[in-house]
Amino acid sequence: MSREQKQLDVICIGRIAVDLYGQQIGARLEDMSTFAKYLGGSSGNVAYGTAIQGLKSAMLARVGDEHMGRFLREELQRVGVNTECLITDKTRLTGLVILGIKDEDTFPLVFYRDNCADMGLKPEDIDEAYITSSRAVAVTGTHLSHPDTRAAVLKALEIARRHDLRTALDIDYRPVLWGLTSLGDGETRFVESQHVTQQLQEVLHYFDLVVGTEEEFHIAGGSTDTLTALKNVRQATKATLVCKRGPLGCVVLEGDIPDSWQQTKLQSGVQVEVLNVLGAGDAFMSGLLRGWLNDESWEQACRYANACGALVVSRHGCAPAMPTKVELDDFLSRDKEVLRPDLDTRLNHLHRVTTRKQVWEELCVFAFDHRKQLVDMAVEAGVDTSRLPTLKTLLLRAAEEASAEAGLTHRSGILADTTYGQPSLNAITGKGWWIGRPVEMPGSRPLRLEHGNIGSQLVDWPQEHVVKCLVFYHPHDPIALRNEQDELILDIWKGCNKTGHELLLEVILPENSEDKKEAYYLEMLTHFYSLGIQPDWWKLPPLSRESWEAIGGLIEQQDPYCRGILILGLDAPEEKLKAGFASAAQAPWVKGFAVGRTIFGQPSRQWLLGELDDEALIAQVKDNYLTLVNYWREVRPAK
Predict the structure, then answer these.
(1) Which end of the chain, N or C, is more open, meaning fewer C-beta atoms within 10 Å of its C-beta?
(2) What is the pLDDT of residues 37-54, one digit of tens each?
(3) What distance in Å separates the CA atoms of residue 527 and residue 506, rounded to the nearest whole number?
(4) Assessment of whether the complete model's pTM goes beyond 0.85
(5) Is residue 249 a contact partner of residue 268, using CB atoms and an 8 Å limit?
């Protein structure tokens, strides 16, 4: 079957687990207090890494029937990994690994894998039709350490051999997982063992490609002299051997093993500052498989592999640190210039924008993050502000009903605050909605943040929440005022980059300004881009077709990965908003609207006065929201 007819490029079989990475770099693992949760496990990382390098990859393993297992499945699916044979194990828990970064030579880790789900793989889990739907099978050495998983791997390899699939082994030697060290010693990378050597050599003949570090070839070849070990491995297999030599790069050996390294061709590595070596081997394997399975030269495959490994050692985490195809290709176009990938603005931006978890082709956002306006309403109605959280919960119900009626799946969103809208935020989080949260102090000019500095706020935020910052700005403000606002917005942008949260920057000319030319919006966006600020979203008032065209051109030039623009409402009458939507009809960068008081203003006032009950409020707000959705649909039909 030709490559085009195959459903998959590579099926990865082996370890998949959750990595809990200590965030206090330089501390002992005993002293680390917070941990980031990532997809992990060598085969899980390779399935993820090959998928974001453009291969059609799959994961064949087991995960637990619990939150961690679902997390791994969703992370793989999000980047396009086929999980048809990622089996949910009803009797075992997903494996965990706790890791830390002490210094460039010390990476403590503890495996929690006692009877874990991925070690429950058995021969009955291997379906011949599924294996033959791929062009290749890639396995890792850990699954050769237990009789059941070994039998499952061998069955897959025998099927692959019968059907002329390519086969690859990442030796992936972890002595602790072969029972050779104490349970808490996951950091040790090499312990001599004749048993392990024998177990590996018995299966080497199944493979077309064998990849490992020098120490991993030591265990596979039964010698601590690398060239001798490689010669021993060659006696057991005709496979192409790729020996990783750390920062030097790697060596590809297709025939006889020479007597000295001088007789080999070194595929040079990329020199970078090392933060974290964990996961670098899985990244290397992902890049190598990209080249190998696309029938590129070994030189090019090793360029991918070495660069992938170099990028990962400069970052925190394994799978989330791996580069996407776009990012890797950009890096390779200028790798001699980038000695510190972690400090390279362009590369980091590409990593940020090409690893987003959700696609938003369009958004119809109901904004009820208002605080001051609703407090004023409550005061006018003579009721306590303690009613406002209940009001916002009802507004959310109206939004959900309207979204369901209009068929806005993956196209609806809300803007809600924590001051009065926390129950609403809690209720909608995790349901696949776009969720924005304000950070600005209402009405502040110069800009002030409502709940402290951006870092202290975002540490508690769910990752899916978007930072919304409204700034009242004028390009002809006094220089001191502009500098003060610029500095805070830049700090917010840097904070979002650090935590991975998206940023929506809402820009409005001050209401009391007499000079409110529409052309100023292009001038202001140009200024923010010149500062290095590249928001994921812009939120702007209705503008003319000419302005939208000019702003669209600016975004295309400055940040073609920008999510887009949402049109704000400012309590405008429906007819004015309708006209504003029409002006944006041919503006591809305008992705929808984020409107509030036009939808909820009058019904909320009546509810606070006791003139509407809960159901009547929901009905009116829903109708108002649907009216705006319909106005938008008139100018921008659903795709």
Answers:
(1) C
(2) 999 999 999 999 999 999
(3) 14
(4) yes
(5) yes
